[in-house]
Write a structure and sequence with these properties.
heterodimer; A: 265 residues; mainly alpha; Cytochrome Bc1 Complex, Chain D, domain 2; two-stranded antiparallel sheet; 11 helices; globular; B: 447 residues; mainly beta; Porin; 6 helices; 20 strands; 10% helix; disordered N terminus
Chain lengths: 265, 447
């Protein structure tokens, strides 16, 4: 009798744990939104499946024709994160990527979908990797306030750009033509080009200075772009942010805006 | 073949050719091929757009990923699409004037039901559209009717994001009016149900040539928010219902504004309002008795104004539409504006109200069911001697489309539809109600 109760209790606990894990993996939280994976599945099959594939492995029927290749969600390796390198992204990170799209890739902005639909998609994308229910959520990095853009800051950033060998990939003029540029591959072995800073403000993971700070701090997982969180202090990262903005050719870049507004002498 | 038999064939051809199933245009695998997206990305079920597709269209057929200009495509890519539909259909009209003695009209006529059926095709649409450069879009669409006539449905160039603002986009040429409930992307295809009655309605005896669903010639300024929740458009158009090589000496105006908003768990809702205000001539200068194009005189006004809504409840959605129409008294009575003495006693500008509710259930991107109830009711006849409800229209349509094939290269749909329509008092001999019904099934494909 006691043995039977124990078994029943064990089964109940197992069920509760698994169901809680299941429900954890099935949901997403973005501010006031709760995403539902079941709803997200229908949306995924409508909008995402041809590139990212039915199993989320980036092997959809269009994948051979797309460059860069679609993200493999089963690896849970994401470029655009606010979390340290190697960690899972937050739900908001995934939501932001879906909303923003990835400029200069086949991934468009999905802002025409409702906020709820995008939250549902996040919930479903998380079901492709067990990491999302095996690992606890990770907090976003802290981004300190941006110091004023100044000529001194830009100069310090230039020195760091040289000493940290950023130029070896991105090129001395930021045109993605450094000596290593053509040798780079992503984590799946596909050739990948470094970002051309003259194309700013169209950075892959967001256009604001804070987004660029985040890129330098967290790195872009799955690509050769490392995290510089351990090799630079936050104010140094801001210096580099200010420097690489000087490469931008577009007068929409915040560097040029700062210059036109007299904030940068 | 006797005269009566020929006459019956004429009726048959009229039903099949003029009112026959018409191909609709806007499902464009040329875009799907360019961007490696499936039909379902832009369409609830093609050709019906979803908001992602609407935003894509509002951006000038651009995804705004930085790769929209044609230079980013393989040199062999050519943005062209074909669409056609082999089908079988049955058409029936309960009150056709038929010679009592075939071949002998002098023996008199009687109303009779004419029912025909057979295989057919919708014609062929050839649609090429895309970008000429970043933020410069175009469309050219010659279409071939199933009787072999070639005509230009669309022909425009569009300058997108002027002054780097998505609120300023200028389109010039021949194009569909900015109707969010687009007749050219509607799901229904049959002779009776394949068009919106409201978009083409004119009262009996009215000489206004205009259809809200007809492509018009002119220029359109439109703008939209980043997700196209907020949209506006203003158009200046020739006063000739989009007729090419037919200059006019006046212009019409069309404006549309809509706002989308989200209801959690239900989806994106949208409400909008539109107004078309135009003029039509009541007479022309003539040469050997024939009107000289572009010399219209005695212009008189007409308008079509209303509201609409797109309501989503998960997989179920409703499109609702209301229109109030009014024409000037001279247009309504078909009388020259310089001859008011020819107006009937008590003549007035005709007015009417119409609307429809169209329901869709999108089981999944490859199966959609639809149904529509539509009505147009006269509120004032141009000639008070005419019965008040003459010309009132009621049409009901149901059907479904199944898409066994859907890829970023081509699409195939199995389409079945039934529609029945009643027009009050238009039977040719007795003045009783005219009832038509259509059944259609076929394979709608584009590539």
């Amino acid at each position: 009798m006691i043995k039977g109760r124990s078994v029943a209790l064990a089964l109940l606990v197992t069920w509760l744990i698994s169901s809680s894990l299941f429900s954890f993996a099935q949901e997403s939280k973005i501010a006031d939104l709760s995403g539902n994976a079941k709803a997200g599945k229908a949306l995924y099959r409508r909008y995402c499946i041809t590139c990212h594939g039915v199993h989320g492995d980036g092997a959809g029927e269009n994948a051979p024709h797309v460059d860069p290749k679609p993200r493999d969600f089963t690896k849970a390796t994401f470029k655009c994160r606010s979390t340290p390198s190697g960690d899972l992204p937050t739900d908001s990170d995934l939501y932001d990527t879906i909303s923003r799209g990835i400029y200069n890739s086949a991934m468009p902005s999905w802002r025409p979908l409702t906020r709820q639909q995008r939250a549902d998609l996040v919930a479903y994308i998380k079901t492709f990797s067990p990491r999302f229910h095996e690992e606890p959520p990770v907090a976003s990095i802290v981004i300190p306030p941006e110091p004023p853009t100044s000529a001194e800051s830009v100069k310090r950033g230039e020195a760091l750009f040289q000493s940290l060998n950023c130029w070896s990939c991105h090129g001395k003029e930021g045109r993605a033509n450094g000596p290593s540029a053509l040798t780079l591959t992503d984590s799946k072995g596909y050739p990948i080009l470094p970002f051309d800073f003259t194309k700013a403000p169209h950075f892959k993971c967001g256009e604001t200075p804070r987004d660029v700070f985040k890129d330098l701090s967290t790195g872009l997982d799955g690509t050769p772009m490392p995290s510089f969180a351990d090799s630079m202090k936050p104010d140094q990262i801001w210096d580099v942010v200010h420097y690489i903005q000087t490469f931008a050719e577009s007068d929409r870049s915040f560097f040029h805006r700062a210059k036109s507004e007299g904030k940068l002498q | 073949m006797g005269f009566a038999r020929k006459w019956q064939w004429f009726v048959l051809l009229l039903i099949l050719g003029v009112l026959g199933p018409s191909v609709r245009v806007f499902a464009i695998p040329a875009f799907a091929r360019k961007y490696n997206l499936r039909c379902s990305d832009c369409h609830e079920a093609w050709p019906k757009l979803n908001n992602f597709g609407q935003t894509f269209k509002d951006n000038g057929y651009q995804l705004m990923t930085g790769r929209d200009a044609p230079i980013y495509q393989q040199a062999s890519y050519f943005p062209i699409m074909f669409r056609s539909m082999p089908l079988w259909h049955r058409e029936s009209n309960n009150r056709v004037a038929v010679d009592i003695v075939p071949g002998n009209p002098a023996a008199g006529q009687a109303e009779s039901r004419i029912t025909t059926s057979g295989f057919d095709i919708t014609g062929l649409d050839i649609w090429t559209a895309g970008t000429l450069y970043k933020n410069i879009s175009f469309a050219v669409e010659p279409a071939i009717s199933n009787s072999g006539t070639v005509f230009l449905l669309n022909y425009f160039v569009r300058f997108d994001n002027l002054l780097n603002s998505r609120w300023l986009n200028l389109k010039v040429g021949k194009f569909e009016l900015d109707n969010l409930i687009s007749e050219q992307r509607e799901l229904t295809l049959s002779a009776t149900g394949g068009f919106y009655q409201n978009y083409h309605f004119t009262p009996i005896g009215d000489r206004t040539s205009f259809g809200l669903g007809d492509n018009q010639l002119g220029a359109e300024l439109m703008g939209h928010s980043i997700n196209s929740y907020t949209r506006y458009s203003i158009s200046v158009l020739n006063s000739n219902d989009g007729q090419l090589s037919s200059a006019t000496n006046s212009y019409d105006l069309y404006a549309d504004f809509s706002q989308g908003f989200e209801i959690p768990r239900l989806g994106l809702q949208r409400v909008g309002a539109y107004s078309y205000v135009g003029e039509r001539p009541t007479f022309f200068d003539t040469s050997n008795g024939a009107p000289i194009t572009g010399t219209g005189m005695g212009n008189r006004s007409f308008s079509r104004t209303g509201v609409y809504g797109l309501w989503y409840m998960g997989k179920f959605d409703l499109s609702t539409f209301y229109m109030h129409g009014q024409d000037n008294v001279f247009l309504g009575n078909g009388v020259r504006a310089d001859q008011p003495m020819n107006l009937p006693p008590g003549a007035a500008g005709p007015t009417w109200n119409g609307g429809f509710v169209e329901a869709h259930y999108t089981y999944n991107p490859q199966l959609i069911f639809f149904g529509r109830g539509e009505t147009v009711l006269m509120s004032r006849q141009a000639n008070p001697a005419i019965r008040k409800d003459l010309g009132d229209v009621r049409v009901w349509t149901v059907g479904y489309r199944w898409y066994p094939i859907m890829s970023s290269r081509a699409g195939l749909a199995w389409h079945q539809e039934y529609a029945i329509g009643r027009t009050v008092g238009t039977a040719p001999l007795t003045g009783r109600d005219d009832v038509t019904n259509s059944f259609l099934m076929g394979f709608d494909f584009d590539f």
